C-alpha cells in the first residue's frame, strides 16, 4: 500500500468531488485508489491523500492535478470575462 499527500487548491475540491461524490468515486474506480479530501476541521484545507498501489496512486495524482489546473484556468477565465463587463 502506497500513500501520497499533496495540495490541491481547496476552491476546486467540490468540482473534483462532484455532486454526492460521483466524480471522485469514478476517479477512485478508474485508478483503483482511495482518495481523501480534507474536512473543514483539518489544519490544511488543501491537503489531499491518495492510497493504493504506487503506480495507480501516481496516475491518479497526475489526473487530479490536471483537473485542478483545468478548473483553475476556467475560474480565472471567468473572472477575467466578468471584469471585462
From TrEMBL:
Keywords: RNA-binding
Keyword RNA-binding: yes
Xref: InterPro entries: KH_dom (IPR004087), KH_dom_type_1 (IPR004088), KH_dom_type_1_sf (IPR036612)
Membrane spanning residue stretches: none
Domain (K Homology) ranges: 2-69
Name of one Pfam family that matches: KH_1
Signal peptide region: none
GO MF assignments: RNA binding
Any single GO BP term: regulation of gene expression
Name of the featured protein: Vigilin
Biological source species: Araneus ventricosus (Orbweaver spider)
Organism taxonomic ancestry: Eukaryota, Metazoa, Ecdysozoa, Arthropoda, Chelicerata
Amino acid at each position: 500500500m502506497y500513500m501520497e499527500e499533496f495540495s490541491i487548491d481547496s476552491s476546486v475540491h467540490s468540482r473534483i468531488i462532484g455532486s454526492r461524490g460521483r466524480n471522485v468515486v469514478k476517479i477512485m474506480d478508474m485508478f483503483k485508489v482511495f482518495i481523501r479530501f480534507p474536512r473543514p476541521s483539518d489544519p490544511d484545507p488543501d491537503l489531499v491523500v491518495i492510497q493504493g498501489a504506487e503506480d495507480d496512486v501516481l496516475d491518479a495524482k497526475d489526473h487530479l492535478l490536471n483537473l485542478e489546473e483545468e478548473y483553475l484556468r476556467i475560474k480565472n477565465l471567468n473572472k477575467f470575462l466578468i471584469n471585462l463587463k
